[in-house]
Write a structure and sequence with these properties.
Shape: elongated
Strand content: under 5%
Helix content: over 70%
Largest sheet: 2 strands, antiparallel
Structural class: mainly alpha
Radius of gyration: 37 Å
Low-confidence stretches: none
Order of helices and strands: HEEHHHHH
Mean pLDDT: 74
Length: 201
């Protein structure tokens, strides 16, 4: 008898689960049946979903043709990693960063996520597993940062000297040249007034 009750409850739960799955599938198919304007055409969203998946596989396949990826692992493991990385970037990372990404951007992300995202993932994993490579990258970053800081300091000092000379010239002009000009203008105006008064008399 207890087995019959357990079997009945299991059947009931399976029926409820199947009904929920069917409702979800109907909802998803209704959403994918909606149209979207792309290149002045009203295309259904399922077409874009298929295009994104195909572009994901195309980018993943092209990533395997690079020299870096040829030298590592088996074809199946590399291809699987490429597809997973591309799908993750396209369907998780991009919608997280941009709340309403355009369809074109999602297709571009699907392709380049499979292509460059896979290579960057392998490079990052290799970097995490190799202490010597980590030290070399840190040294490279420090050296580049020092060179960049030196260039910035040189530019600032060169332009700071020019800016300081312009400011000093402006100060000298405001204290020396402008009062002399004001005096000359006032004297010219006074002479013009006197000449006009003499002509009137």
């Amino acid at each position: 008898m207890p087995q019959n009750i357990a079997a009945f409850q299991t059947a009931k739960l399976l029926t409820l689960s199947a009904a929920g799955t069917a409702a979800s599938a109907a909802s998803i198919s209704a959403q994918l049946g909606q149209t979207h304007n792309f290149l002045y055409l009203q295309l259904p969203l399922w077409l874009f979903l298929i295009a994104m998946i195909i572009l994901t596989f195309a980018g993943a396949f092209l990533s395997l043709t690079t020299d870096y990826m040829r030298a590592r692992g088996t074809f199946l493991s590399k291809f699987t990693t490429a597809v997973i990385v591309a799908l993750f970037i396209s369907f998780v990372v991009l919608p997280t960063i941009i709340t309403e990404p355009s369809v074109g951007l999602m297709m571009i992300t699907a392709f380049f996520g499979g292509l460059s995202g896979t290579i960057l993932t392998y490079v990052f994993m290799r970097l995490l597993n190799n202490k010597e490579l980590q030290d070399a990258v840190i040294d490279l970053i420090v050296n580049r940062a020092i060179k960049f800081a030196a260039v910035v300091i040189d530019l600032v000092t060169d332009h700071a000297a020019k800016l300081l000379s312009v400011v000093l010239a402006g100060i000298v002009a405001s204290f020396v040249i402008l009062p002399n000009l004001n005096t000359d203008i006032s004297a010219s105006a006074q002479n013009a007034v006197e000449v006009s008064n003499d002509e009137l008399v």
